[in-house]
Hints:
By secondary structure, the chain is mainly alpha-helical. Helices cover 81% and strands 0% of the residues. The protein contains 7 helices and no strands. It has helices at 3-26, 34-56, 63-92, 99-117, 125-151, 155-175, 188-229. Helix 3 (63-92) runs parallel beside helix 7 (188-229) and helix 6 packs antiparallel against helix 7. The longest helix is centred in the C-terminal third of the chain and has 42 residues, at 188-229.
Amino acid sequence: xxxxxxxxxxxxxxxxxxxxxxxxxxxxxxxxxxxxxxxxxxxxxxxxxxxxxxxxxxxxxxxxxxxxxxxxxxxxxxxxxxxxxxxxxxxxxxxxxxxxxxxxxxxxxxxxxxxxxxxxxxxxxxxxxxxxxxxxxxxxxxxxxxxxxxxxxxxxxxxxxxxxxxxxxxxxxxxxxxxxxxxxxxxxxxxxxxxxxxxxxxxxxxxxxxxxxxxxxxxxxxxxxxxxxx
Length: 230
């Protein structure tokens, strides 16, 4: 792949890791959301590892390569799927999972990640379909999330969340099933697109989450003031 493509890949990865670390830390502040923060930080660490892998050479025998496979499997299975749904339910349904539910969700992602990382091999059709179903199911959830933002009048965040979700679904559909014409063996062109989309998802989902959280807090405060004045 030419120098331009490699430069774009590095820039896309930098955007993804910066978004992961920056918004991951912000999700730990204020009213913390551990599950969302964890997945954001996992993607940040994954992006940093990809930079290390690119700098040292893509060796399939390296620890960095096995870590890349682990983080990829973690996020595609239960990270960008189950963890996001459970985390977002704090503002969509007022649900905060117990530590046991959180631990089980994280353990599921770790188990899939280790399964793939300890024996990295081409993704089998069964795993590809599993990843795709989970990611498309979350896309449906996030479109419903965007609809909630629209209903409270936050059309800007609703539009961004919808656009990021649609692009994320396109990445999920493309990942194991479509080869971009002219792409190389490391799928550089695909990853330029995918990492850019994942960065967009991290940013827009964070702002959508905070917007809905702020709206609910304002509504609760208004109801309290009304009751207090009676």
